[in-house]
Write a structure and sequence with these properties.
alpha/beta; seven-stranded mixed β-sheet; 4 helices
């Protein structure tokens, strides 16, 4: 008995119909057609309980796929414990994927760090630069000072750290 084989045209029509059905289902909110969502990246954060810009940085990170657990205990002790010198400090310290993230580092740079996986202590934006994430609220009237995100590595010989520019933000306004 001969087997029936669909024509190429018939197979393409079926494929087109299935694609259209999947598209309609995906845009209508059907759960079986929804693409899997990435799990948020966990962030452990230490900050002062009264720091408003830290809260704004947390919101920036959450809006970019990070799940932040904040500890309102200050960050000086944890920064020292993690090996980051005070001169590279800011108002909050985070631990993400085994890296120290100090200050107002953009989420895009944290993602880049996690993707590249360099042998490093982490990233820092020393101080509190206006225009960096968390320091970019309407209170600053759109002002954006230039700044660098620094990659922090441990010195090969002796103690201490080295820094190099990881990303440079040179948009200056106001």
């Amino acid at each position: 008995m001969p087997q029936h084989r669909p024509s190429r045209r018939s197979a393409l029509l079926h494929l087109t119909a299935l694609t259209a059905l999947a598209t309609v289902a995906a845009t209508s909110g059907a759960s079986w057609a929804a693409a899997p969502t990435a799990q948020p990246i966990p962030v452990e954060l230490w900050k002062d309980p009264t720091c408003g810009c830290c809260h704004d940085w947390i919101t920036h990170m959450q809006d970019n796929g990070f799940a932040v657990t904040a500890h309102d205990t200050g960050n000086t002790a944890v920064r020292a414990k993690l090996g980051l010198p005070p001169e590279l400090g800011s108002c909050h310290t985070a631990l993400i994927g085994g890296y120290v993230i100090e200050g107002h580092v953009p989420a895009s740079d944290v993602r880049k760090l996690l993707a590249q996986k360099p042998k490093a202590l982490g990233l820092t934006v020393p101080g509190m630069v206006i225009g960096s994430p968390g320091m970019d609220t309407p209170a600053y009237n759109g002002r954006q000072d230039p700044y660098d995100v620094l990659l922090v590595t441990k010195k090969m010989l002796g103690s201490g750290v080295n820094t190099s520019v990881f990303t440079s933000y040179r948009h200056k306004t106001g």
